[in-house]
Design goal:
Strands 1-2 form a two-stranded antiparallel ribbon. It is built from 18 helices and two strands.
């Protein structure tokens, strides 16, 4: 981790670009904290629009409309194709109305993607660090929010409670879990490139902090997503020789100091706050019960006497029935229309509502993105792309378990992946060979 990148005088533009991107990439937890916990601004989508507008304003470069940097061409063609197709459905095959919120989502998605194409390539070094600190700070705001919430008690899902009337009670724990995952993955990536002892201790603490947030969110999809991300790492990188080398490295003086400090800190924390460990174990028991409920709902197999119907899983099971009805009807070609049915399974909904072309665009986009992610997991090109790869693996579960195919919760991270993942001129890997490369040129230059 390079703290000098936070020197505002020397790195002002890259910092503002990075803050703007971080606000779009992972802004919802901070929006909920400012709007619902602190009570600043209207408790409605108006505040969200103001927040994202500020983020886009921070991303505007001095070279706007003069320089356009090349993204991943396959991903941007498929992604933009799907978004344009859904926009067409929004205007011409829409039986649900045209609310301002949906128009705003399209505007912010296309605006974010367009501005990313104008942001210089070198922002990647600053961006990964800003994403980490942004998510770490947001975890702190979550702790403050639940401690000051009179309705929250240990054992409940951790989330910022919404202040507007008629809102979902208890907030959105999936947003909480995603922020914890971002903290974990970005800290782990930076930890591998950091030698300073104090910074390494801070990053290690951040990993545990993020893990704790994920646990108390009780978001099953996030647990499974983390399992997939770490499973991919061990499958593609783990070797038996790594165990022996790790044991040998552990006895080096610097690493021994690091391990001892960690053990002392954990021992002090548990001795002073032993109830926290009991609370986390209680959350684990709740998670096990939820998994048993999902298995019983999906398969009818009762693996425990307490297993009961999980109504969120039941909704997805019924959604699969809607998909089968579509397959055996004329709707298979054009679909049923924009947001006509809510399946809570984005891959299936892309076909049910937008026909075979919607499914092909959306599924192909995620398929090729998955291929680039696996390549990045194998190569570890640079910290930002490595983080994006593991983050996609962690959110891949949502393609089958929650959300809609055009949700900005998908497309804001997708836009950053389109811009930075699988770009050849960013894929310099010094540990394999040293290559003298010319400075990458923009795709087009327009003189005004």
């Amino acid at each position: 981790m390079n703290w000098s990148l936070f020197n505002v005088a020397n790195n002002f533009n890259y910092l503002r670009y990075s803050v703007g991107i971080a606000m779009m990439f992972n802004g919802f937890p901070l929006i909920f904290f400012i709007r619902d916990t602190l009570g600043i601004g209207p408790a409605s989508s108006v505040f969200t629009a103001m927040f994202f507008s500020l983020a886009l304003l921070l991303m505007v470069p001095p070279t706007l409309f003069k320089k356009l940097y090349k993204p991943n061409t396959i991903l941007i063609n498929l992604g933009a194709g799907f978004l344009l197709l859904t926009l067409w459905y929004f205007f011409f095959m829409n039986h649900q109305g045209k609310p301002i919120a949906d128009i705003g989502n399209f505007v912010f998605t296309f605006g974010f993607l367009a501005l990313l194409l104008h942001v210089p390539n070198d922002v990647k070094d600053t961006l990964i660090q800003v994403l980490f600190l942004f998510s770490f700070f947001t975890n702190i705001t979550l702790v403050y929010s639940i401690l000051t919430d009179p309705n929250w008690t240990p054992g409940m899902r951790a989330a910022v409670s919404f202040a507007n009337e008629g809102a979902q009670p208890g907030g959105n724990p999936h947003i909480t879990a995603r922020n914890g995952i971002i903290t974990m993955l970005s800290a782990l990536v930076l930890l591998g490139n950091t030698k300073h002892l104090i910074t390494r201790l801070f990053l290690f603490f951040s990993v545990l902090f993020g893990l704790g947030v994920v646990v108390i969110s009780l978001a099953k999809s996030s647990y499974l997503g983390l399992g997939i991300a770490f499973g991919a790492y061990f499958l593609l990188h783990f070797k038996f020789s790594d165990i022996t080398s790790a044991i040998g490295n552990a006895f080096k003086f610097r690493n021994m100091v690091f391990i001892i400090l960690i053990l002392l800190a954990i021992n002090y924390f548990l001795s002073r706050y032993g109830n926290v460990l009991n609370m986390l174990l209680g959350y684990w028991d709740i998670f096990q019960d939820r998994i048993m409920n999902v298995i019983f709902t999906s398969t009818g197999v009762r693996l425990s006497e307490e297993a009961d119907v999980d109504y969120s899983a039941m909704g997805r099971v019924s959604g699969f029935g809607e998909f089968l009805e579509t397959i055996y009807s004329w709707d298979i070609f054009l679909g049923r229309g924009y947001k006509n049915d809510y399946l809570d399974v984005p891959l299936l909904e892309s076909w049910v509502n937008h026909g075979i072309f919607g499914f092909v665009f959306f599924a192909s986009f995620n398929f090729f993105l998955f291929l680039y992610v696996i390549r990045e997991v194998r190569r570890h090109t640079n910290p930002l792309t490595t983080f994006l790869a593991y983050f996609f693996l962690s959110m891949m579960v949502l393609l089958f378990t929650g959300g809609r195919p055009y949700d900005i919760a998908f497309w804001f991270p997708y836009s950053v992946m389109i811009r930075f993942l699988g770009i050849k001129y960013l894929d310099a890997i010094p540990r394999f060979r040293k290559i003298t490369r010319p400075e990458p040129q923009p795709v087009s230059t327009v003189t005004t």
